[in-house]
Amino acid sequence: MDRNSVIGFLLLGVLLVGYIFFNQKQQTNANIEKARQDSIANLNKPKTPVVDTSSSTAVAGSTPDSLQLAGQYGAFANAALGTAQTAVLENEVVKITLSNKGGQPESVQLKDFKTFDGAPLMLVKGSFNRISLQVPANNNTLNTADLYFTGGQVQKLTDGSQSISYRLPTSNPAQYLEFVYTLKPKGYIVDYTIRAIGLENVLPSGQNFLTLQWNSQSDKQEQDMQNEQMNNQVHYSYANGEHDYFTLSRTSHEKLEGGKLKWVSVKQQFFNTTFIAKNGDFASADISTKVPTSGNIVGQAFSTLQIPYNRAHDFSFPIEIMYGPNHYKTLKSYDMGLEKIIPLGSGIFAFVKYVNKWIIIPVFNFLSGFISNYGVIIILLTVFIRLLIAPFTYQSYVSAAKMKVLKPEIDALRAKHGDDQQAFGVEQMKLFKSAGVSPLGGCLPALLQLPILVAMYSFFPSSIELRQESFLWAKDLSTYDSILNLPFDVPFYGAHVSLFTILMTITSLILAFYNRGMTDQSNPVMKYMPYVMPIMLLGIFNRLAAALTFYYFLSNVISILLQWVIQTFIIDHDKIHAQIQENKKKPVSKSKWTERLEEMQRRQQEMQQQRKK
């Protein structure tokens, strides 16, 4: 491997390390808007009614004072007290338990998935999670999550769907608020329709929107809590397809304005809960977040969605709520851009998402269509990728062979000019030109492989197909393969030992050692940097997905074998030497760029000589 090839690979490594740090850096926000979050928490805190008839300590026959209830709850006084009852909407992939208290989901289970420790996977569980519409009551603002709805009987529709209706009554039977949930026989989306019947005079005059409070708590589902927090994000998209997101651990508050907000999604590492405006759009959203410092709570999001309200006598606003996995094909099938929540490439490397979408994912899905072992799929995918970049790899090895042939002449030039780097550079360029060798021949092929390397870094940790899939000693390819848990934390490394990461590091060092004779051993940077980079990556990759480190390890092994085969049996060094000597006999035609470069080098050389005088 020639000097320029090494520079190319080192540049590739620096960019890759920079990309990794860009994605993994945890920005702890010490100035969280505590007052704002406390006010939101108090607003959404369940209110204790004057008398709870469901309490076992209630006195038999006692009734609350109707005037007191009317003063506190206004037209919704009849809904202030009640007994909580549940009903279930269930299909083959999701089970939603709803309560008449608030007319909202009490729990949501994804039936095809388990947590890392084998427990049922619950996307909604606990009192923090709530869906609540704000309604006026005299001078107060009530949350429907604190009120008792009527209804709650599951109805089976002719198409096999299940539907349930919850009605929030007022003192006037002709005026009510209604929530209707409909779950189809297949799929992760439940239809949620908000209906306001005859409430145009109950709601404040001039109010042209309804305020929907949505609190979502992400609980620990995976082995690596830190990685989960890094992937706990809020994504959103406007009607024009514009998409953006923020990470809960880095942003405490975000206000989404401008109208025509199509959907808002709270994304966990492998699952999401998404609110989708079905026919219209949300007018705006105000989202505050909190990341607890202890316990098994990954993050909490307090969202306020503004629903346009035309004050019609029979007003309805249909919403689709998705409780499902971050599976690319599934999300893309809804044709709403939901697949954008999967991190296939971001930042300065956002372009690699197209490599994943157009190459990696189709090949991965094709292989998984008839192969059940995902370790074997990764092996075949690695071979496919190496075949795909084979022309660049071969060109890099040919360039290395040419530089190896020219090495004696380059060493002679270096000895001739000594410390005069300018003169050495001019003569070296002349040598390259006369021999027909491009100094970038080894650098560019290495850089052209960068999109593939970064695409793999994005794809494997985001692929839910690899979740809880085992291979060899790795119990879960979507997280690190620990063969030894340490009783202490090693700085810049972690508290466990990943065997695939160690194998990746060892093969990287072997590859660097194998190419040591083709680098400039007189330059300490060029001499030792190929060995430093794998050690640096050891600490970074130790906590990354086993599928990723297995891929890099396997790719290193293939590189070692390919380089040995190509340089031993395919590349003819004598033929290359003869070709270079033949090129030297040909007249050299200089491009304008080359002429300007040589002129600049000549002037710099003259200036250095004048300074010496």
Automatic annotation (TrEMBL):
Classification via InterPro entries: Membr_insert_YidC, Membr_insert_YidC_N, YidC/ALB3/OXA1/COX18, YidC/Oxa/ALB_C, YidC_ALB_C, YidC_periplasmic_sf
Gene3D superfamilies: 2.70.98.90
Transmembrane segments: 6-22, 373-394, 492-514
Organism domain of life: Bacteria
Residue ranges constituting the Membrane insertase YidC/Oxa/ALB C-terminal domain according to the UniProt record: 374-567
Main location, first listed in the record: membrane
Membrane topology: Multi-pass membrane protein
Role according to the record: Required for the insertion and/or proper folding and/or complex formation of integral membrane proteins into the membrane. Involved in integration of membrane proteins that insert both dependently and independently of the Sec translocase complex, as well as at least some lipoproteins. Aids folding of multispanning membrane proteins.
Assembly and oligomerization: Interacts with the Sec translocase complex via SecD. Specifically interacts with transmembrane segments of nascent integral membrane proteins during membrane integration.
UniProt name for this protein: Membrane protein insertase YidC
Taxonomy of the source species: Bacteria, Pseudomonadati, Bacteroidota, Chitinophagia, Chitinophagales
